[in-house]
Amino acid sequence: MRLTTKGRYAVTAMLDLALHNDRGAVALADIAKSQHISLSYLEQLFAKLRQAELVRGIRGPGGGYHLARPPEEISIAAIISAVDERVDITNCRGDENCHKGERCLTHQLWEDLSDQLHTFLAGITLRDAIGWPNVRQVAERQDALTGRDVNIPVNKIQHAGNQA
After folding, report:
1. Level-2 CATH architecture, domain 5-88+124-156
2. What's the whole-model pTM score?
3. Nearest-CA neighbor of 16 among 120, 123, 149, 133?
């Protein structure tokens, strides 16, 4: 699967943002510290997320980022796509030149699996993911280490099942 650190970090940062979105603008420095992601790398990712209208930036003192839409309207697939990633497990990146410049015997299988992965990720929203108990536990642990608060009360989260 060709999901690079760019896609993984974008999803991680967006989950962090969603968990803290209700307390006002979230500074990228806070996300960088909590998630151990380079601040300059996050700035590049958030430029793309802003262009895709998934986040909204606020400048100045107390500035940072907010989700541009409610968390139930932002899918994991949309985040990955926003940072120019594809969920593609074909050996040829969909170019159909996997076997000496031609389509390989198993190309359709890998292409169909890639489509299924994309459909799966499109069906999971930030609201779903922040509602998973394991995600909450990790966020609470990270926040305790960095002094941040998770501000989404558990009773406001519609659980998507124990998928985490």
Report:
1. Orthogonal Bundle (1.10)
2. 0.82
3. 149
